[in-house]
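Deliverable D4.2, example record:
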Amino acid sequence: MHRTTPPAAPPSSACRSVARTLAAVALVTSLGAAGATADIEVVNVRAREAPPGARTAAIYLTVENRGAAADRLLSARSPRGAVEIHAMRMDGGVMRMRATADVPVPARGRVELAPGGLHLMLVDPAPPLKAGERVPLRLAFERAGSVDVQVAVEPLQGAAPHGPH
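Output generated by the structure prediction step:
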């Protein structure tokens, strides 16, 4: 006996809606709770303990991009104070620090925010940073979205200066 299968009916709009919702849930799950993609990883996030009377604290970190597309660090936020992206450059034999709009992160590359160069500046941290604590920081990337990290606060002793304010 030979049976023929009738052609499948086109999916209803309700089925298409459910399929779209499931696809969106799968995408959000793959992005993670903070919205970061697997392509961007932020490591070695640290700051120095604030000396008495300090109004700023530099934050250093490394951004690794394993993806095929370049990305950009657009901003950072912390509940402990305003955060600015800063770059240091030689200007007429003098090291100067200036706010910068963003930090390009090359495809399959890395960017180090380190003393004497690019860094994040936590302005008027409240309360001042103390060695041993961890400070929440949310980084916003153009492609990867938000990435939440914890800043490890290191002792002030042996701190490398990061330049004039």
